[in-house]
Amino acid sequence: MGTSDVNVNSSSSLVKDFLHKCGGVAVIDGGFATELERHGADLNDPLWSAKCLLTDPHLVRAVHLDYLEAGADIILSSSYQATIQGFKAKGYSIEESESLLKRSVEIACEARDVYYNRCCETSADQSTDGKVLKQRPILVAASVGSYGAYLADGSEYSGEYGDAVDLNFLKDFHRRRVQLLANSGADLIAFETVPNKLEAQAFVELLKEEDIKTPAWLSFNSKDGVNVVSGDSLSECAAIGESCEKVLAVGINCTPPRFILDLILSIKQVTTKPILIYPNSGESYDGIRKEWSNTGVTDEDFVPYVNKWCEAGASLVGGCCRTTPNTIRAIHKSLSGKRTV
Ligand code: MET
Ligand SMILES: [Zn+2]
């Protein structure tokens, strides 16, 4: 063990310890960008949710707070599609871009502070309008979306980046952002909607190369319930997470609920780390038209399956695009009997 491993070891049990304090299962927040949109934000922009960092940081904080009050134990920052390259394309300087990235985590931390104050101000016998106002451990995760998310052309749902994009390209693309977010005050880094094996490899190599002290999770998306969206093997992708001591949990997000059970069973074959799942509502996203089709069958009401997913091995559960604080409230409620605290 080198000296650089000391801090990692002290944070290597962060998620397991947290789960223990949460009574075995933790609730992740729900769709963030789509919730901003439900509040009227226009995110038809290459920056998507990160546009709100510029135009409406109060709404960003309010949505975080809504998720905490709905019972989320982990909230993800608004940095999913925030990149230095993306801000630069809008005319922001490197310094401005870097401070916007950090700001996304600060806003999430501010929401947590406001939440804790509200918990203190509310006595047990006060009516809380169905809000969960309970002093409890809460983690802030810095969201890192894929290169495809930055491209804003829907390729985070195909994982097809073309031959010119290799491992070094992806590492260099993400390097500075990951360094910054790791030092932003976040408790962990959430690599999410990872569409292929190459990018998973890039993330774990970056964690090592840059000696990142903040632990991470690695979350893939699937559109067939078998492989990740690029067609790469989910087992191989999850095994990449398993091989890295800085990755504390592995799982699936932004994937239709009907695929989740099989995906959990497949991940379980290759990891002993906690498994996280936060499905979308089951609607499909048209990356070119930049809209969700709410036609056809949706799985919006997936909450009844949450306990089954936990029985199958998931221990961190939430929602992704088009799920709302109501979804998270229902997940919180359905898990309350299951938790041991
Ligand atoms: C396309 S998946 C988006 C994930 C991000 N955490 C969000 O909810 O906005
Ligand atoms: Zn999503």
TrEMBL record:
GO terms for molecular function: methyltransferase activity; zinc ion binding. The keyword Methyltransferase applies. Its cofactor is Zn(2+). Zn(2+) binds at residues 254, 320-321. Keywords: Metal-binding, Methyltransferase, Transferase, Zinc. Residues 14-335 form the Hcy-binding domain. One of its GO terms (biological process) is methionine biosynthetic process. InterPro entries: BHMT-like, HCY_dom, HCY_dom_sf, Hcy_S-methyltransferase. NCBIfam families: PRK09485.1. This is Homocysteine s-methyltransferase. It comes from Solanum tuberosum (Potato). The lineage of its organism: Eukaryota, Viridiplantae, Streptophyta, Embryophyta, Tracheophyta.
